[in-house]
Amino acid sequence: MRLLLAFWTFAAALLPAASPSYQTAFYFEPNLGQTAASVRYFAQGGGLAVLVEDGTVTTSLSGRSVVRMTLGGGMKPATVVGVDPQPGVSNYLDRKPAIASVPHFAGVRLNRVYPGIDMVYRAEGLQFEYDFHVAPGADPAAIRLRFSTAPVLTRAGDLIFETAAGQLRQHRPVAYQTVGGRRVEVPVRFAVRGEEVTFALASYDRSLPLLIDPPVTYLTYLGNPSNTNSFAVRTDGSGALYVFSPSTIARQTNAIGSTAGTTVTKFSATGQLVYSTRTDIFASDGAWAVDAQGFVYLADSATLLKLNQAGTAQVYRTTISFTGLQMEGMAVDASSNVYLTGRIVALPTTYTATAGAFRTTGNGFLMKYDAAGANTIYRTFLPAVSRAPGLAVDSAGATYFGVINPSTSWGAARNLGGGSGNFLGFAKLNPAGSALEYVFDFSAPNFTATNLAIDSSGNLFFSGPIGFNTLPVTNALQSTVGGGTSDIGLVKVNATGTAILFATYFGGNGQEGSTTNGGLAIDAQGNAWIGGLTTSTNLPLQGATQNSRLGNADGFLAQIKGDGSQLLFSTYAGSSAAEINSGLHCVAADNGAGYLAMAAGSGTLASVNAIQGTYGTGSSNLVVGKWGTTVPAGNQVPTVTSINPASGTGLTTTRTFVFTDANGANDLGVVNVLINTALDGRNACYIGYDSVNNLIVLLTDSGLDASVLVLPSAATVSNSQCSIAGSSITAVKAGNTLTLTIGYTFTSAFGGGRVIYAAARDANGGNSGWSAVGSHFPSVLTSNPLPLSASPVAGTATVGATFPLTLQYRDATSSFNLQPVQLLINSAVDGANACYFGFDHAGNFLYIIGDNGDLQVTPVRLNGAAGGAASIENSQCRLIAAGSTFTDVGNALTMTLQLQFKAGFAGRRLEFGGAQTPSGANSGWHLMGSLTVQ
Questions:
Q1: For 701-730, what is each residue's pLDDT tens digit?
Q2: Are residues 297 and 332 in contact, defined by beta-carbon separation less than 8 angstroms?
Q3: Where are the beta strands (DSSP E) in 196-321?
Q4: Between vectors from CA 56 to CA 53 and to CA 62, what angle results, nearest 5°?
Q5: pTM, whole model, 2 decimals?
């Protein structure tokens, strides 16, 4: 049975094509001493624990409710074994002795729980399934399920269990046999007697195996599994990602792990789980780090811990013997020396300064440990430390941190901000910890720097929210607040702390906020990545994977060139529910890639290429996305060069895609083709070609699994949208190009206009990102009203030249019933910054939607009618009245529009149409064609 349960996940969403995905979906672990001895295997996360014993499966929800299922009248299983090994291991270093390298399994098989009957309990992403496998001749009437909570049997045949944490629903069961290679359903229903449930089956072939599968859905949101107000992401420069998640939740009986600690989860550069390690260090205030070799460091007020590269054991564990300290920042230099800073929160303190230290008194501290973690190289007091911006260290061992009241507590401080106050400032301490190299005041009113970072040259970046036009803008991308309550201010100061290199606003018409000590990172190229929460609807975008805000508040991620001259990348990242708060948006960066971790509030993330594209029930899910916009020196981004034909109709078609890599065709790793109404891998015809191993994969409807063809092959793979015959596929490499030809057969249910997207990734991680390259119309829809066609269905328009576009709309009653009709040209169904028109049929006028979604007031009248403007325009396109016409013939309305596109609108674009009737019937948006503006 399939059970959708609350889960705390780091699921990758919002990824460009072929970028790695990140997830810690449920998996089972054997009990090697992590929990009570009666438990054989367990899975846990997101406030949920599933404990498998010999004859009982216990599900604990949020530590508040327990649903226990016992196999009534069953036998002790002959064996209980893990099935389907998964990548990664778990380590429990909070146990004594530590438990390391615990393997992961997708399922657990309980053999012979009844005569001839096995039970398999399986985790698939965020789904659970238990099946009964009935051998030939075995009697399924022996199966009796006893539940700790009496179920209610609905008229539909479902079972409902009411618990304090929510409702558990088991849908009417399914049973089937495989007969001659075909799946044959066997009618089955639940039979309930009090708290005991059995299966009532129709007659079936008892000489063949039988499988019984009762689907289950968990219908409630659960509380967060941890204190998610404090978590972080870090990288080691190799592309590996580390997620730190402190937890303070007291767990239920037989729970795994301690009641407080920090879990470190590592993912490889390709998105595979490497390890998940629980420690007893509650590093809640940013005292965590990763060095370039992949060693992990954590600290709380009492302990400094270093983990080995496998996460299986501690390299050292050092007791911090000073009282009254609160850790608030950590950094590690190239020699593996560790720097810790924070505040003195309890007096008297036993903390002391070493000889020659910068200060011998103060309410802040900074100490440096040697590479063995055995000795402090120096300890100094700090006069006053700002809690927010964190700590950084350069290649020479000099340290950088935010300070408060620099002019009064640190001595003379130059004023770079131009403000009259002296609250906010930054300081740099020499490598010996004995003297300041600089201190400056940066007091721009209503500016709160919450993050700092440095580049390889020692230039200092800091960022945070600002609500007024008080920033000393310098070489700014955006010179004023974007019109809302606050933007993000980003400032870069030179290595000597004497001059501002650039200072800019970034934001839109709402509010932008960023997390403390986590909303800013600098990549290896010196570019700044900023991230946080936004309520703006007009955020500055560049190469976005999500072009509009989906909920009341979404996450955002932006990359700004290191000299401040260019917005390299910017995107929304969110769902239809608010993304919780800005304190949960953390940023990391490595060689040309940026990472954003956030708490998502619903299951409607605009996920792209995600291993786990679905939302786990719960009040929030933690989500990590990776975006790459630049490439290491010497490498080139591969490109999607062409598609032929660019458009077509019918259920059967063959297309040729050409991909180019400047480093040669052999450098191409994976190329992707996705056909759907939008960039969504679910319920799509989604194909990947692995050019290294010469194989094709077709994703299943869920987007979570795939069928594989190792070429050459005479076999066929299919899902509910399309099928692909191996005999139709050719892949030819020549010079810098890969030419891939694929034949498709679409199902009739996959009708209407579909967008063809393509993408490519090279061996070094260079990624073209998704491009809309064409369109296809497998079958004509019969809904009413309907946008019917565009001509040309795949066109090329030159910037500034007149481009005639003919559109046809249909209504079952009469073309005069089409009021109004619409046309939207953009890279997706997004009315912002689009070429977007509406036609009022009754009044014979065509109007244009402005860049910000406002209606333009002066319309154009068609067929040369008087009283209209000669042309109308926005920043994307212009419509010329002369030659623009409409005609009514029977049920069809045909419009020809004379369009001119502007330079900023160049690229591949999609044409969407919509139609309504006076009675309120609405077609919704449908793809009509595609267009390349050049």
A1: 877 677 888 888 899 999 999 999 999 999
A2: yes
A3: 196-201, 210-213, 216-218, 232-235, 241-247, 261-267, 273-278, 288-290, 296-299, 303-307, 314-319
A4: 90
A5: 0.57
